[in-house]
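Researcher: Before we compare anything, I want clean individual predictions. No alignment, no superposition, just each chain on its own. First chain goes here; please echo the sequence and then give the structure tokens.
Model: Echoing the first chain and its structure:
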Amino acid sequence: MILVVEDDPQVARLIKLVLQRINQPTDTVSDGQSALEKARALKPTMIFADLTIKGMSGEALCSALKGDPATSEIPFIVVSGDRDIAEKAKNCGADDHMGKPFEFEDLIRLVKKYDKNDDNPS
């Protein structure tokens, strides 16, 4: 399950639709505190999070999850329209970043890059 942390309902719905098309179960939350609780409880396969979310910021969420041994291995991808996205993603310990607006192919590429189930030989 991929956790999407996005406070814009249209963007959250769009990401969820793209991920469902490639058979990725997805859950969405709109604020940092809910995301932190869900990530700790459900251990998603990956997290896509906006930097500007309600409550705890995306950077604080990233730092908290990357600083916790129970969640530090979950790939965390920052999704933002912020022009300093690369620097902010690096500073909080994110595994990657994706700018907004984004192309569907970029989203799918990142899922494939970090999908641990993909490296199983068939």
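Researcher: Okay. Second chain, same rules.
Model: Second chain and its structure:
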Amino acid sequence: MPSRQRIARIDHEVQRILGILVTQELKDPRLGFVTVTRAEVSDDLHQCKVFVSVIGDREQAHQTLDALHHASRFLRGELGRRIDLRHTPELVFIEDRTTERAIQLAKDLRADAERRQTEHAE
């Protein structure tokens, strides 16, 4: 079983390589503006959860995830050529909505601060 430190290094390298592949190699028109935000390889190195952030609406995000799922065999093959692992993990793409939630939270906080300022001025 690989050490936690080795797994973390593999996670980072997988994220870096997939980020390059997704932005530079994939030409699927369904792909939106997508960023690979994180990769989590399982302890046995057989599966990798790839978290992606998609800028756009729900439909754009859905289409982008479909395109990534469709390209997963190609991406896994390219990953296997670029990373030195005995077994290249299966890729599972998951939408990361953290950025979207952070933007909404910032808007909510700003609106609340403006509301309080207006109430205080009255």
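Researcher: What stands out in the second chain?
Model: The two ends are 65 Å apart (CA to CA). Additionally, The first strand starts at residue 33 and ends at 41.
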